[in-house]
Amino acid sequence: xxxxxxxxxxxxxxxxxxxxxxxxxxxxxxxxxxxxxxxxxxxxxxxxxxxxxxxxxxxxxxxxxxxxxxxxxxxxxxxxxxxxxxxxxxxxxxxxxxxxxxxxxxxxxxxxxxxxxxxxxxxxxxxxxxxxxxxxxxxxxxxxxxxxxxxxxxxxxxxxxxxxxxxxxxxxxxxxxxxxxxxxxxxxxxxxxxxxxxxxxxxxxxxxxxxxxxxxxxxxxxxxxxxxxxxxxxxxxxxxxxxxxxxxxxxxxxxxxxxxxxxxxxxxxxxxxxxxxxxxxxxxxxxxxxxxxxxxxxxxxxxxxxxxxxxxxxxxxxxxxxxxxxxxxxxxxxxxxxxxxxxx
Amino acid sequence: xxxxxxxxxxxxxxxxxxxxxxxxxxxxxxxxxxxxxxxxxxxxxxxxxxxxxxxxxxxxxxxxxxxxxxxxxxxxxxxxxxxxxxxxxxxxxxxxxxxxxxxxxxxxxxxxxxxxxxxxxxxxxxxxxxxxxxxxxxxxxxxxxxxxxxxxxxxxxxxxxxxxxxxxxxxxxxxxxxxxxxxxxxxxxxxxxxxxxxxxxxxxxxxxxxxxxxxxxxxxxxxxxxxxxxxxxxxxxxxxxxxxxxxxxxxxxxxxxxxxxxxxxxxxxxxxxxxxxxxxxxxxxxxxxxxxxxxxxxxxxxxxxxxxxxxxxxxxxxxxxxxxxxxxxxxxxxxxxxxxxxxx
DNA sequence: AAGGCTTATTCAAACGTTTGCAATAAAATC
DNA sequence: GATTTTATTGCAAACGTTTGAATAAGCCTT
Lengths: 344, 344
Hints:
2 copies of one chain form a homodimer. Chain A is α/β, with parallel strands linked by helices. Chain A has 12 helices and 12 strands.
């Protein structure tokens, strides 16, 4: 920090007034004459006075800062969420302190600790893939720290969770493929320890059931790391090993879908004529691949903004956690593009 | 913040010692008996003591927090840079406070102000597209605030800038197209107020010159907003209006390249046989589009980490700004993929 | 036994604010 | 002219920590 930044005391000295008077004058408290207010403000301006938020925090035991903990920043979905968080936080006068865990539990815990040390007013958390027990979260909840979980959320009493309707999204996607006339729909699933992935798989299964289609376990393949390379690999095998090939693929996310798409093209299969493909998340890549990829839109920005609204309301005691019926579920939306449109 | 968080005073009361002793004991200062140290640490543990970083900041006039100001979070390049920043900051014990300007100058200024209020130890800035004069930066520099600019950097005395060798990257890309036997290379340029874009265009021009190829101004088109839609539009016209069409395109970034690719396919042109395309940045999409897109890799993570290293070194007075020869230029790397490989 | 070192601890001020209460002075009331 | 009211300002403590200087006790030295 810069030495010589003007403080209230400097203004006080300059005007031969006390610090308390300056403080009140700057804040337009009643009981300060208009004349002094004016003078104080002039001098403040002249000295380029800037209130010291740290001192204020210490005094008020409030930092006007929220801590955001996410698995990774370089991720279309999460960066979109951050954007929503940042937007609301900024407009309500809060700072955002950000850390990424790189999917490491240890880092998650240590981030929580530094943030606690930094007296942040509340947490926004989407936990890492490594996180399987939630004790470190329970502790925070017990101590009444305001927390909102989003996307990857724990099953904890009293936790406020903001999620997307993964089940419905997956259901819609699968239903859409069925309605387009595809008969054997495979699913490239995500890691089983993430609820969101389980929900997507559940939506997929339920849609099949609802349309009296058999669920074939050999066509549900886990593509845990979610990279296009891995998915390409898996899809290759899927195509090669089965005489009776699937004619559609519902993928757990868009990267996986893109990988599957590459494998299909490589095998000489036409999309959407021979194989229909639907992804999940509706990333930018959907409109850039050829053919354009149908996908389930997740309102990332809204997740961020909604979650932040809730958190700030909790912090400012406008509402308490138990007044919020959790989880808050935001709607997904199926975006149909070429990759799944067999029929006109 | 949670009420009832244990403080040094609480430990002091419990052990009938003074606050100063506790402080020193916790920090293993000499002059405290081993016995007391032990007792203090036990009690600290028991009470779940956590140092109050805010109080520390006030005392030390140091917040161990750096402020990051970027145009937008939802952007592959910037999110990668953030990741690099976060990594280094975390490992050196600093917090990262993040704001995005959404390309608005006003927001840039106001972010600087809140960060100043929050006594951050230094700034990392990539400025907005609206920013054309740099007075608000000069002021900070004059007051000796540590700042490192990255990617979009101002021309200011005493500023430490970290950038990528855009010129060389563009030169390499263009040279590559020439060597592949393309004869008429168009350039889809970026907004002229960003130095990075001007540099890329300059690299393109110089590569043409160096190979005795004519520079045709009608084939240098500004695609200012950088969206694939816009670029598709422009490329369509480029193809339609000229009898003597370009047979290659060097785009200012990958999105623009992807848009151009779509327009070419639409017009029935084969890539890379009829048209060669090279983008810039090497985003994820490069491997997902068909054919895969050649591009110039920008080391985003390294920009972030290098810039942060420099900033923290400045903050910790290991080096001063004038000892750093600015700009620090990181190398780009041409990644050749299918979209530009006419020859084997 | 008095002075001088060590060792262990405490005191008090400081960082920049805010805020309940007290103090002062001027003005208004009777 | 004495008393109350009103308007304006100041005092001092507090938030949690660090740190230079001061203190107190114990031990050694001569």
